Amino acid sequence: MKNLLKMLDLSSEEIVEILNLADQLKYEQKHGIEHKLLAGKSVGLIFEKASTRTRVSFEVGTYQLGGQPIFLSSKDMQIGRGEPVQDTARVLSRYLDCIMIRTFAQSEVEDLAKYGSIPIINGLTDFCHPCQILADLMTIREFKGKLEGLKMCFIGDGNNMMNSLIVGALKTGMSIAVACPQGYEPHEDVLAFAKEYGDKFQMFRTPKEAVVDADVVITDVWASMGQEGEAEKRKKAFDGYQVNDELMKLAKPDAMIQHCLPAHRGEEITEEVFEAHANEIFEEAENRLHAQKAVMVKCINNA
Ligand code: CP
Ligand code: NVA
């Protein structure tokens, strides 16, 4: 594994290897065992969108691994003034050992990997959010002891989170049911992939149908970064797609909740459900750190 561009690129074995390494790194960090696996390496972190978790967990994670993180805001880079990604990739490949990028178009991430010679990690695009999904899978496995055979349910927009969760769940032996309004379905590439898994993937219009007997219920904001102008229209479209107590009664009694954050309480999730599951949600946020350290080690040390 050299890059992490999207979940579709990972094999089931690679996902399990990342999760196992992430568990080990978490254990070591909690027990004060140093792991300077990236000593002398520099990781560039390009952000064309806002971030709290991704930025801080990549910076701290790189430091804990003995490497140097460099925060690169596109606002301050020539890329923000139109320098082509092909040139940025070839220049940065001569200085850095790895690039994490958060941007809009998936094609920009794919182009960085195509023209650059160093590992590229996708820190979120409009299409997918693979680092988040690895942290989610890690957290679910931590709480449930396994992934195989569990049912995941995603309620909401067919966005980067839904796209990546469908792939991540199916590749790790889970089944997944999603509920989204018409016009907000997951990406066609993801639907084509999911088709191969038969009834392990189900798409519904109502959350009540999707959530039945779920082991894990996941949701995300209705308007993602870049869609702020559609917020009001989306609020109407997603009316009835809230994860609340009434809906959770239909899931398994011990169902857990995941939310990538930031959350909009009172929209996609109620305050009550969010706070009742806060330990799972904030463990998920912590696990971004461990999962991404594992991804960096795998990509950089294999490159
Ligand atoms: N979940 C997530 O990616 O958070 P940030 O946008 O804060 O990085
Ligand atoms: N779907 C959200 C996820 C944020 C981590 C967005 O893209 O804004």
Describe this structure in words.
- By secondary structure, this protein is α/β, with parallel strands linked by helices.
- Helix content is 43%, strand content 14%.
- The chain has helices spanning 12-30, 53-64, 85-92, 106-115, 130-144, 160-171, 188-195, 207-211, 231-237, 245-248, 271-276, 278-302; strands spanning 42-47, 68-73, 98-102, 120-122, 151-155, 175-179, 201-204, 216-219, 256-259.
- The longest helix is centred in the last third of the chain and has 25 residues, at 278-302.
- The termini are close together.
- Norvaline (NVA) is lined by residues 124, 159-161, 220-221, 224-225, 260.
- Residues 124, 159-161, 220-221, 224-225, 260 line the site of norvaline.
List the helices and strands and how they pair.
Layout: H1 12-30, E1 42-47, H2 53-64, E2 68-73, H3 85-92, E3 98-102, H4 106-115, E4 120-122, H5 130-144, E5 151-155, H6 160-171, E6 175-179, H7 188-195, E7 201-204, H8 207-211, E8 216-219, H9 231-237, H10 245-248, E9 256-259, H11 271-276, H12 278-302
Parallel strand pairs: 1-2, 1-3, 3-4, 5-6, 5-8, 6-7, 8-9
This protein binds phosphoric acid mono(formamide)ester and norvaline (NVA).
Phosphoric acid mono(formamide)ester (CP) binds next to helix 2.
